[in-house]
TrEMBL record:
Name the record gives this protein: DUF1361 domain-containing protein
Transferase keyword on record: no
Domain of life: Bacteria
Regions crossing the membrane: 12-34, 46-67, 79-97, 133-150
Pfam families attached to this UniProt entry: DUF1361
Keyword list, A-Z: Membrane, Transmembrane, Transmembrane helix
Keyword Cell membrane attributed: no
InterPro entries: DUF1361
Organism: Flavipsychrobacter stenotrophus
Length: 163
């Protein structure tokens, strides 16, 4: 495989990752279901949903770390933090599309016209959809802070282990 084909494949995998990345973080929004009445004790639902949400966030952060390393090799390092935050903004918007607009990642393949029309409407009329932009921005900010904290802790741990 040539370098061009290898780079094309790598960027293709990156875009596939981006398509499914919001799913890892989306699980956090399942905590909304705690208000639903079931025959199961609330503490059980809380423990189960929180465990799934925490696992999703940790796996998502781990995959984002891998993507950050990929970006550092393929774009100027000074742009990487901006790109990472932008990816988290897209993740927040993906969470909005899933939670409130009920779109799924695979809809880009099964219902591309409807999904793209929905996105185009949000972009064309941003003031009509302030909730989507607020959710996207708040999720991105929360995830970025969480991610930077996690990478700092991990970095310090690695430094201590090698010292």
């Amino acid at each position: 495989m040539s370098k061009v084909e290898d780079k094309t494949t790598s960027w293709g995998i990156f875009f596939l990752w981006l398509l499914f990345f919001p799913n890892a973080m989306y699980i956090v929004t399942d905590l909304f279901h705690l208000n639903e009445s079931t025959n199961v004790p609330k503490w059980f639902d809380l423990l189960l949903l929180f465990s799934a949400a925490l696992n999703g966030v940790l796996m998502g952060m781990s995959s984002l770390y891998n993507i950050e390393q990929f970006l550092k090799k393929n774009i100027s390092v000074k742009y990487v933090p901006v790109v990472v935050f932008s990816l988290l903004l897209l993740c927040g918007y993906g969470i909005y599309l899933g939670r409130y607009m009920r779109w799924n990642s695979w809809d880009i393949f099964t219902q591309p016209f409807g999904l793209l029309m929905n996105i185009a409407h949000d972009v064309k009329h941003p003031l009509r959809k302030t909730d989507s932009w607020m959710l996207s921005g708040l999720f991105a900010t929360w995830l970025f802070i969480l991610y930077r904290y996690a990478t700092q802790v991990f970095s310090k741990k690695q430094t201590q282990e090698t010292a």
